[in-house]
Amino acid sequence: KMAAGEAAGRYRSTMSKSKDPSGLLISVIRTLSTSDDVQDRETEKGRLEEAYEKCDRDLDELIVQHYTELTTAIRTYQSITERITNSRNKIKQVKENLLSCKMLLHCKRDELRKLWIEGIEHKHVLNLLDEIENIKQVPQKLEQCMASKHYLNATDMLVSAVDSLEGPLLQVEGLSDLRLELHSKKMNMHLVLIDELHRHLYIKSTNRVGQRNKEKGRISSVKAKEFTCCFCMVLSVGFNSLYLGLCLFKSIPVREMSLLEIKEDMELDPEENSTVFMGILIKGLAKLKKIPETVKAIQDRLEQELKQIVKRSTTQVADSGYQRGENLSQENQPR
């Protein structure tokens, strides 16, 4: 009996300390197996049955208390289970469809390649049609740029259009007239740019000096030499700008400025700054690949233009001197 009592004590101690069901079961089995008294076993069995009934009652009470939550949890679990099952079935169906598509695509590979090539060809044709539509508008835009003297933009537009007409669009027979027209304009474009370059180099730059002195009203004989030197200085500035541009496009290192950085502003007056305008003209001539012709034209017209400058400056100095003499004679007349 003492052994059975000790075993029962160990069982109760184990029941109170451990909450692991498997541990409790092993402890009960050990207690019953080590006990020799039948009555102790029956007592232990009764306690187990009582504890089982108590657990069953507690479980029923908890179910009653949390019936709504339990029902919701069960339904949610069922819904999740159904969704997982449906998803598995759909994935299985998708895999089967992919395998079927793979087989069909393998069988239609040549046809798909043909359609892909046709798609690329159609895209290329659409790009050519867009390019043709843009090129048809070039003459009108070119005329507007030439009228506003935005020569760099006009040159870029003309060179790009001619390159396209003589390149990807060479076989388009409907553009033959436009090709001839733009090619002719490109061949004569440099003449317009050279004339503008000479006008700014020899005429406009010197006219500004003459205009400033004209606004002063007269030129004294002492300042006549200064006036002529001023013309020479302006002319020198123009030649320096021209020289810098030609050097840059001939790959000669020049540190003063870079005409490659000059850009044309479509919103401003292109002739507002003669130096920048001449740089734009030289840049346009370089795009037309007409720098050698430009140099030759400047050399051919240099003597004539310098004579014209001397003639204009001499005439202006003489007119100013005559006007000054008239003013002095009127001041010295007796009253």
Automatic annotation (TrEMBL):
Keywords linked to the UniProt accession: Coiled coil, Exocytosis, Protein transport, Transport
Family that this chain belongs to:
Belongs to the SEC8 family.
Looking at the UniProt record for this protein, which Gene Ontology cellular component terms does it annotate, in alphabetical order?
exocyst; growth cone membrane; synapse
Establish whether keyword Lyase is in the entry: no
Q: Which Pfam families match?
A: Sec8_C (PF20652), Sec8_N (PF04048)
Q: Which residues form a coiled coil?
A: 45-97
One of the GO biological process terms: vesicle tethering involved in exocytosis
**Protein name as annotated:** Exocyst complex component Sec8
Residue ranges annotated for the Exocyst complex component Sec8 N-terminal domain, each copy included: 46-144
Write down the species. Answer: Podilymbus podiceps
UniProt xrefs under InterPro entries: Sec8/EXOC4 (IPR039682), Sec8_exocyst_N (IPR007191), Sec8_M (IPR048630)
Where in this chain does the record put each Exocyst complex component Sec8 middle helical bundle domain? 270-319
Protein task: Component of the exocyst complex involved in the docking of exocytic vesicles with fusion sites on the plasma membrane.
